[in-house]
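Deliverable D2.4 — example input (structure tokens):
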């Protein structure tokens, strides 16, 4: 049974070896698929925003006592951070995701706590997504600069863009694998994210209080949590709905 399962994996690494390198995946009870979390105390942009009243990071659930002090969670975060620089981290993540994320759980959420650590970190995540093409990846982030940097690296050289500057957002969105949705998270509650121009084609998410929601964004009877996933501004509603896991589509209406 184990031998058969290993044959289906894209690389020759056991589940235990992968977990030794990259740590274990999480299985959120309220979402389809699996997830992966890092220590929120190491968020770079989050660290800058934590002391700003009204910011999402100032009330971060992943910074409360439970996450910070409960030993299994803290150990898991620490192990995953240590693994980020391991030369076989991409292989390990591919092994973990290929092992766990099969239909109907072929969804993967990056960073249910924590955030990107560098542009190179995002590059490695993109490698993982490319090597798990049957899995739908969702990466919320406030590290806009890292996303913009990687998009720039993957777009045409600036010298060749010339007069087609209007195409930059579309080019940037096309720079990422089709099975990866990078969703730019708002920094302030009840505010739209202010994102670099070249990232304006990427979907965003906002955190809204019921009081802060405009009347056309808060359907009758829905909670603020149900509206966390806002619609992409450029890609259009139909594509946005396709990008969301089935269990979340209702909530995003
Ligand atoms: S970026 Fe996310 S995980 Fe990090 S401090 Fe802010 S809300 Fe918390």
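Example output (designed residues):
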């Amino acid at each position: 049974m184990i031998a058969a399962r290993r044959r289906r994996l894209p690389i020759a690494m056991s589940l235990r070896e992968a977990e030794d390198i990259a740590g274990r995946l999480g299985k959120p009870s309220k979402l389809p698929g699996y997830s992966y979390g890092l220590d929120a105390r190491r968020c770079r942009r989050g660290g800058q925003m934590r002391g700003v009243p009204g910011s999402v990071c100032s009330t971060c659930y992943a910074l409360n006592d439970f996450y910070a002090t409960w030993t299994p969670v803290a150990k898991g975060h620490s192990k995953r951070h240590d693994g980020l620089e391991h030369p076989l981290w991409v292989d390990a993540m591919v092994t973990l995701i290929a092992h766990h994320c099969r239909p109907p759980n072929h969804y993967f959420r990056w960073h249910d706590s924590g955030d990107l650590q560098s542009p190179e970190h995002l590059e490695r995540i993109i490698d993982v997504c490319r090597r798990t093409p049957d899995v739908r990846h969702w990466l919320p982030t406030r590290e806009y600069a890292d996303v913009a940097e990687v998009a720039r690296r993957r777009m045409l050289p600036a010298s060749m863009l010339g007069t087609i500057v209007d195409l930059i957002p579309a080019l940037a969105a096309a720079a990422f694998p089709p099975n990866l949705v990078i969703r730019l998270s708002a920094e302030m509650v009840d505010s739209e994210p202010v994102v670099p121009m070249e990232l304006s084609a990427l979907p965003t998410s906002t955190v809204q209080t019921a009081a802060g929601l405009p009347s056309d964004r808060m359907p009758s009877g829905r909670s603020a949590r149900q509206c966390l996933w806002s619609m992409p501004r450029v890609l259009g509603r139909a594509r946005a709905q396709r990008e969301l896991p089935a269990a979340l589509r209702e909530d995003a209406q």
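The chain has one domain: 2-210.
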